[in-house]
């Protein structure tokens, strides 16, 4: 259909699935009154979320040339450009390389794209047009940002990010003195980049899955505040419904913060206590739950999880009654890494917008989103027991997050006793991560379908055994150091 409507003197490159069984990953060349040409991908991506060799057969990249206006053009398909330039250019030296990509967003990813494209421009002494898809696909965020390099590798054009764009650029002007609008490089800000990516990914996920609005539980803490702010920015405040669900340990400060957040965002807030439901549940089931000694030892944790699940029950009931609304979860990467969340409780939802952000990153982005200072300055707490704080259950986040980054995102081995203990917790809680909602991916190593870790029940034995004394001593040391720094 597209082929039939192409005007004269225009050629179109269109990505799609090529012929055969199994099929090929292809780009079609469509020209008026000419048979279409098919260029197919040779080098596959088989890492992280990519699994191309499982479904597709390879083409031959050295055949992916065509002539347009007497210029020889090479078509490169995504992964092929991420390798060293190795075209067989016997009598086929390209005068232009067009790289067609579906490259997902990642922090600082665009600079990496330019770096590899620059190698190709310099190797073959020709311009490179790097085209990138834009849009959300499940957890993946394709940020666009197509660009052009001249034959020296200099950036001469950059399109917008997170936005569909129709642009025009003349690579081979007929007269050398033709004036070109000067190009100015945009300033790079990783934190603002994350906000744009999360808002864009959230909007795409909601719309492409057929939802019209979202709702979430607002605790008065920083995580739910940031999710609410991102949702309002992505969808508009009228499409965001917030619920404050106080329980027996909810503080007055939390209620105050919830109202401050709602007033700032100017969106709807409903208040529904879970305390009566909680007390009724304990009254009618305590004899069964607390019958055995093992249950008595876990009594406090059991009561905490009951509160989280009662809130989830309410939020999911609202979702059932309002099928056009998607429930957003509010857990972050630090919590997910250590299993610091309740299955069928606060891990419930259709999407986790903060699932690829450590807690310290959440605070950073929340500050940029103008979340009230009363929320940012208070101690993080799930408020499921008396005077509970995250740092009593875990470590101070400014100490914990760099360790998690080392073990998860940098994939480095644990060395200290503390790192080994954290690594054990990451492995032991894999069964929880398998049951979490989809996570918007903004980093190279995320808890998404590219994670692919097996379950390891029980303790993991290291050559240097972990002892409670050694771990406690190390935790005490880092906490004391944190207090001194504060």
Strand order across the largest sheet: 4-5-6-7-10-11
Ranges where pLDDT stays below 50 over 5 or more residues in a row are none
- Beta-strand residue percentage: 5-15%
Q: What is the number of beta strands?
A: 15
Radius of gyration: 27 Å
N-to-C CA distance:
65 Å
Mean pLDDT across residues? 89
General form: elongated
Report the helical percentage.
25-40%
Number of helices: 16
Q: Which class best fits the helix and strand makeup?
A: alpha/beta
Largest sheet: 6 strands, mixed
Question: What do these coordinates show?
Answer:
This protein is α/β, with parallel strands linked by helices and 486 residues long. The chain is built from 16 helices and 15 strands. The longest helix is centred in the middle third of the chain and has 23 residues, at 299-321.
Concise synopsis of the structure shown:
The protein has 486 residues and is α/β, with parallel strands linked by helices. Helices cover 37% and strands 15% of the residues.
Features:
single chain, 486 residues, six-stranded mixed sheet, four-stranded parallel sheet, 37% helix
């Amino acid at each position: 259909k597209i082929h039939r409507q192409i005007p004269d003197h225009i050629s179109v490159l269109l990505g799609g699935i090529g012929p055969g069984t199994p099929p090929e990953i292809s780009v079609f060349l469509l020209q008026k009154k000419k048979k279409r040409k098919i260029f197919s991908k040779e080098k596959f991506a088989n890492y992280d979320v990519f699994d191309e060799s499982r479904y597709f057969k390879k083409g031959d990249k050295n055949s992916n040339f065509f002539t347009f206006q007497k210029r020889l053009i090479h078509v490169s398909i995504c992964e092929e450009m991420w390798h060293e330039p190795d075209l067989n250019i016997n009598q086929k030296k390209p005068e232009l390389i067009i790289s067609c990509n579906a490259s997902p967003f990642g922090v600082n990813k665009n600079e990496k794209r330019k770096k590899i494209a620059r190698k190709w421009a310099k190797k073959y002494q020709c311009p490179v047009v790097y085209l990138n898809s834009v849009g959300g696909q499940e957890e993946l965020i394709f940020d666009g940002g197509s660009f052009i390099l001249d034959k020296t590798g200099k950036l001469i054009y950059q399109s917008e990010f997170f936005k569909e764009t129709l642009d025009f650029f003349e690579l081979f002007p007929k007269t050398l003195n033709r004036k070109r609008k000067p190009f100015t490089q945009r300033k790079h800000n990783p934190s603002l980049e994350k906000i744009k990516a999360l808002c864009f990914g959230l909007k795409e996920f909601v719309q492409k899955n057929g939802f019209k609005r979202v709702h979430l539980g607002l605790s008065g803490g920083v995580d739910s505040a940031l999710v609410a702010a991102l949702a309002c920015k992505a969808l508009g405040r009228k499409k965001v419904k917030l619920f404050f669900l106080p329980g027996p340990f909810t503080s007055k400060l939390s209620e105050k913060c919830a109202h401050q957040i709602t007033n700032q965002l100017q969106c709807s807030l409903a208040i529904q206590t879970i305390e009566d439901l909680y007390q009724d549940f304990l009254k009618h089931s305590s004899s069964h739950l607390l019958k055995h000694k093992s249950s008595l030892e876990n009594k406090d944790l059991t009561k905490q999880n009951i509160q989280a699940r009662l809130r989830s029950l309410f939020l999911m009931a609202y979702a059932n009654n309002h099928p056009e609304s998607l429930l957003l979860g509010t857990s972050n990467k630090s919590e997910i890494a250590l299993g610091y969340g309740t299955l069928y409780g606060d891990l419930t939802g259709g999407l986790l917008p903060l699932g690829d952000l450590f807690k310290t990153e959440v605070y950073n982005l929340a500050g940029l989103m103008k979340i009230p200072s009363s929320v940012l300055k208070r101690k993080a707490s799930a408020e499921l027991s008396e005077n509970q704080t995250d740092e009593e259950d875990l470590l101070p986040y400014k100490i914990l997050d760099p360790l998690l980054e080392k073990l998860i995102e940098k994939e480095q081995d644990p060395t200290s006793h503390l790192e080994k203990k954290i690594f054990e917790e990451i492995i032991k809680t894999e069964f929880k991560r398998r049951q979490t909602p989809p996570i918007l991916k903004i980093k190279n190593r995320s808890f998404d379908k590219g994670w692919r870790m097996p379950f390891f029940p029980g303790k993991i034995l290291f050559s240097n055994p972990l002892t409670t004394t050694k771990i406690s001593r190390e935790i005490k040391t880092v906490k004391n150091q944190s207090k001194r720094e504060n």
